[in-house]
Amino acid sequence: MSNLRLYDKPECPFCWKIRLALFELGLDVERIDSADLATRAQWQALTPRKTVPVLVQDDLVIYESNVILEYLQDLTGQLLPKKPDARVQARLINAYSDGVIGAGLREVIFEKRGNPQAEWDMERIERGTAQFEAALGHLSDQLGDKTFFADSYSLPECALTARFGLAEGYGVEIPERFANLRAWFARMKERESYLITAPKHLIL
Ligand SMILES: N[C@@H](CCC(=O)N[C@@H](CS)C(=O)NCC(=O)O)C(=O)O
């Protein structure tokens, strides 16, 4: 399959999970940085909410990351488990990653990004970090002693690898009490997909 073009933003967690999915599925894609002024108007015209990621294949334009993931699943059958109940669990973790894990992290990242350290609102950073940590218990329970959240690399790995990668890049650690999540993330970082898709300045 070819002709895939992704309007992309390196640090966007929604874009990063698409990059991971595409790489893990072995799909070639032309990546265009959404900050590129020469193409900004082009992708903004494709999406009513003016957000990235936007995936284009010939005449097809898809602009919500989870709709993109579902499309990639439809094409390949490799992003979700086979059994319907396991699919539900995988989708729920993806939703939890977007909504709950992302919420605390956003506070930390938005505060640190672009602001000189001396001006950081430490209360906001601590609040966001605490919110992130509080959300990890559910994930730790879901993972248990499994290698992947579902039976193989799937939707939750794409979503959470991006979130944990951003967390690490912005100085937010997974606490030691969540040993299974730490080990899981270490495994994800060993995969080629991490090296290829991570924003270069965030690779630790
Ligand atoms: N629900 C959307 C959220 C996408 C989103 O919020 N993208 C942000 C970047 S993380 C964005 O495009 N913001 C506007 C911009 O960067 O110009 C999705 O899942 O695709």
Word description of this protein:
- There is one protein chain.
- With 204 residues, the chain is α+β, with helices and mostly antiparallel strands.
- The protein has two domains: 4-76, Glutaredoxin, CATH 3.40.30; 84-197, Glutathione S-transferase Yfyf (Class Pi), Chain A, domain 2.
- It is 57% helix and 8% strand.
- Helix 1 (13-24) links the parallel strand 1 (4-8) and strand 2 (30-33).
- Helix 1 (13-24) packs parallel to helix 3 (65-76), helix 4 packs antiparallel against helix 5 and helix 4 (84-112) packs parallel to helix 6.
- The chain starts with a strand and ends in a 7-residue tail after the last helix.
- The protein binds glutathione.
Strands, helices and their partners?
Elements lengths: L3 E5 L4 H12 L5 E4 L3 H8 L9 E4 L2 E3 L2 H12 L7 H29 L9 H22 L11 H15 L9 H12 L1 H6 L7
Parallel strand pairs: 1-2
Antiparallel strand pairs: 1-3, 3-4
Helix pairs in contact: 1-3, 1-6, 4-5, 4-6
Read across the widest sheet, the strand sequence of neighbours is 2-1-3-4
Low-confidence stretches: none
Oligomer: single chain
- Summarize the helix and strand pattern as letters: EHEHEEHHHHHH
**Mean of residue pLDDT values:** 96
* Overall shape: globular
Catalogue the ligands. Answer: glutathione
Number of helices: 8
Number of separate domains: 2
CATH class of the largest domain: Mainly Alpha
Kindly, what is the distance between the CA atoms of the first and last residues, rounded to a whole number of angstroms? 33 Å
Structural class: alpha+beta
Fill in the CATH topology of the largest domain. Glutathione S-transferase Yfyf (Class Pi), Chain A, domain 2
Determine the fraction of residues in helical runs and give it as a percent range.
55-70%
What is the total tally of β strands? 4
Strand content: 5-15%
Rounded to an integer in angstroms, the radius of gyration calculated over CA atoms is 17 Å
CATH architectural designation of the largest domain? Up-down Bundle
Biggest sheet architecture: 4 strands, mixed
